Amino acid sequence: MVRLLRRERDLPVAAGVRRRDSCGASSELFLYYGSPAMTSDSSAAGWEGWDAYAPFYDWENRRTIGRRDVRFWTDLARRAEGPVLELGCGTGRLSVPVARVAPRFVGIDRSAPMLRRLRSRLRRARLTARTAIVRGDIRALPFRRRWRCRLVMAPYGMLQSLLSDEDLTATLEAAAGVLPRGGTLGIDLVPELPRWQEYHRRVGLRGPLSGGRRVTLIESVRQVREHALTVFDQEFVEWHGSRRTVHRFSLAFRTLTVPQVAERLEQAGFRVDAVLGDYAGEEWSPDASVWVIVARRR
Ligand SMILES: C[S@@+](CC[C@H](N)C(=O)[O-])C[C@H]1O[C@@H](n2cnc3c(N)ncnc32)[C@H](O)[C@@H]1O
Fold first, then answer.
1. Of 10, 250, 291, which Cα lies nearest the Cα of 155?
2. Ligand 1 atom nearest to CA at 167
3. How far, in Å, CA of 20 to CA of 13, rounded?
4. How far apart are CA 194 and CA 7, in angstroms?
5. Which DSSP category does 103 fall into?
6. In terms of CB atoms within 10 Å, which of 75, 212, 217, 246 comes out highest?
7. Residue 293's beta-bridge partner residues?
8. Which residues share a beta bridge with 92?
9. Ligand 1 pocket residue status of 159, Cβ below 6 Å
10. Distances in whole angstroms, Cα of residue 111 to Cα of each of 50, 119, 234
11. Ligand 1 and 95: CB distance under 6 A
């Protein structure tokens, strides 16, 4: 739990903030780089761990979520008929397909190593002209007061990286602030996290990585039920020939129920339009494998 309680001001995050966006962000979009939450105090640290995870994120997620949710998000983006903002865009698993169908795509993420991968993906896909990628914190979106998009996406458990009610409220209010009345907020929660069995140092996955390397994931899972937290302690052991490198980090997630999230949405100025139990539009139930909420700005 030490990792969860570490304070942001102890970490040299702000020093790495990019001053200029390399993906064509227009200057009228951004108010400032490096939101206050990146330098000020907060006991929650759900953003931690992602930098170390970046080299392995796509490798692992090709074997887990894969492309199951891509169609859902590209359909929502098409229907939005306007700019799309993705919170926690990461390495761009969804950003690239969404940027192909949206007239303008903006992605924000706090992790520079995750964003480096996304930027090169966008370059390879020749999508840099209508995309803007910014390193920042979703709890205080760094956009100009008048900037608006038509869809804010919070995919694949993104909001579960917010470990306190204050952080969730700040993020929902920030999302409401960049949407016009009737604009859409899409949220995908991963309901299985609190159901995850606890275990210690289990070999999760193993296989080849690029460049002739091989990797094994050794994982431990802890449930901190009094705080609705699930903590994954990850150890990626990478082999390159006979050279062995170990990468250790933890990721923490907080899972609220759908009614709890719906209540926070109402308080932040949204109306819940639909709650789905899968990516094809199936009706939601508490034991559904996916919890998707589509809300509109009131
Ligand atoms: C589960 S990944 C999702 C990546 C991508 N959207 C996808 O679906 O594959 C969550 C991402 O959220 C980012 N993140 C977590 N907390 C954040 C925060 N407070 N502000 C900005 N980004 C954050 C992490 O760096 C990570 O890239």
1. 291
2. 19
3. 16
4. 25
5. S
6. 217
7. 187, 275
8. none
9. no
10. 6, 12, 17
11. no
Both tokens of 50, joined, read 């992602």
Question: Is 137's C-beta closer than 6 angstroms to any atom of ligand 1?
Answer: yes
Nearest C-alpha to atom 27 of ligand 1 is from which residue?
Answer: 90
Q: Is the CB of 253 under 6 A from ligand 1?
A: no
Residue 46 CA: nearest ligand 1 atom is 16
Please report, in tens digits, the pLDDT of each residue of the chain (298 residues total).
323 323 333 222 332 233 334 333 444 455 544 443 444 333 448 999 999 999 999 999 998 889 999 999 999 999 999 999 999 999 999 999 999 999 999 999 999 999 999 999 999 999 999 999 999 999 999 999 999 999 999 999 999 999 999 999 999 999 999 999 999 999 999 999 999 999 999 998 899 988 889 999 999 999 999 999 999 999 999 999 999 999 999 999 999 999 999 999 999 999 999 999 999 999 999 999 999 999 999 9
Nearest CA to ligand 1 atom 25: 111
Give ipTM to 2 decimals. 0.99
